[in-house]
Structure formats: structure tokens, C-alpha cells
Specification:
Number of helices: 5
Strand content: 15-25%
Number of domains: 1
Order of helices and strands: EEEHEHEHEHEHE
Number of strands: 8
Helix content: 10-25%
Largest sheet: 8 strands, antiparallel
Strand order of the largest sheet: 1-2-6-7-4-3-5-8
Structural class: alpha+beta
Radius of gyration: 16 Å
Shape: globular
């Protein structure tokens, strides 16, 4: 299948969905994380940034952003990888007009839903541009549930010692090594034109 053949997903056909916000939390840095009511259909495409060192960069980001999600589902945070779904009227062209990532991966939601929880979240802060705010209706977080690590753990990542952080990093990398191949082959934004 050529990239140009996949510019929309089944849920995009017809009238765009109208998601509602279920809950909004405000992180200590002022970032707003809103949990939406919408969901993806099995044939909807999910896109993630797949730059060089994707596993390591995604794992580092998941640990750095763990505390951002405190209070969204529990008192603890979440290990997440940011993604966009082709849903709610948002297309690949919309995404790549705003995002400047050179490589990305795509997968059908039905092919990843057994590996990862997908939360419909809109994340905004003081630096969110109007174009990025529009994309947030199609933003999702891929939640990396780690064996033996309860999301309700109320400890801050920064409060962990070096060995505990290293262990979490290794666990996140293992989950990502199982997940990211589902988004291959890597695709170039140049292929969109």
C-alpha cells in the first residue's frame, strides 16, 4: 500500500466526531491534560514520530513526562508515548503541516490495541499554537503499562534513586521494543508530496 493511498481512516468518513472532555488536570508546570470521550475504530490509523533512536528517545520522554499525568487516572503518573489518530476530521496533511518530524510510523489501531492502552488526550500549554490546538482533537497517548509497576504509585520519578530510574527505563524500552515494530516501516514526510 502506498502512503498516498492512506490519507483518511474509516472514522473520518462522514461527519467528524464531536469528542467531549471527561476530565482535565493541570500539571505543576501549567500544562493542561484533557481526557476526551472519543475512541478509535480498529481500522483507524495511528501515527507516531519515528526518528533516529526511537526506542531510547521515546523511553526517555516517557520517564520525563510520567508526572505530567498525575491525577488523570490515579494519584500516580503514566508512561506514555504521544501519537495522533486519523480521526475527528484530522488528516495526515493536517498533522504534517503542523509537525515537522522527518520520519513517522503508522499502524492500524486494531493491530496495536492488544499491546498498549490508547487514551484520547489533548495536551496544551502556554506555547500551544492555534494549529497545534486543532490537532489535539486527534492526539492520543499510548500508555505503556509496565509489569510490576502500578500506575497508582504516587512517588515522583525525580524521587527515585538512580538504580530505580534505570530499571524503569529498561522496562519502558522492553515494552517499546515490542510495540514500535508494529509501526514499521518508517515513512518519510517527503513521501506525502
Amino acid at each position: 500500500m502506498r502512503l498516498a493511498d492512506v490519507s483518511t481512516s474509516p472514522s473520518e468518513v462522514g461527519a467528524p466526531r464531536k469528542p467531549t472532555v471527561i476530565r482535565t488536570i493541570v500539571a505543576s508546570d501549567g500544562t493542561h491534560v484533557a481526557l476526551r470521550s472519543d475512541a478509535l475504530d480498529d481500522d483507524d490509523l495511528v501515527l507516531i514520530h519515528m526518528g533516529a533512536g526511537a526506542v531510547e528517545r521515546a523511553a526517555t520522554s516517557a520517564l520525563l513526562n510520567f508526572d505530567l499525568y498525575r491525577g488523570l487516572e490515579s494519584d500516580g503518573g503514566l508512561f506514555c508515548v504521544s501519537a495522533f489518530g486519523l480521526t475527528n476530521g484530522v488528516t495526515k496533511a493536517d498533522i504534517f503541516t503542523v509537525l515537522r518530524h522527518s520520519q513517522y510510523g503508522q499502524a492500524r489501531y486494531g493491530d496495536i490495541k492488544q499491546l498498549v492502552r490508547v487514551l484520547p488526550t489533548s495536551i496544551t500549554d502556554a506555547e500551544t499554537t492555534p494549529d497545534m490546538a486543532v490537532l489535539q482533537s486527534a492526539h492520543f497517548d499510548l500508555v505503556l503499562d509496565l509489569p510490576g509497576h502500578a500506575p497508582a504509585d504516587a512517588r515522583l520519578i525525580e524521587d527515585l534513586d538512580e538504580s530505580e530510574r534505570a530499571s524503569l527505563y529498561d522496562q519502558v524500552c522492553r515494552v517499546l521494543r515490542d510495540l514500535l515494530p508494529r509501526f514499521e516501516p518508517r515513512r518519510s514526510r517527503k513521501d506525502l508530496s
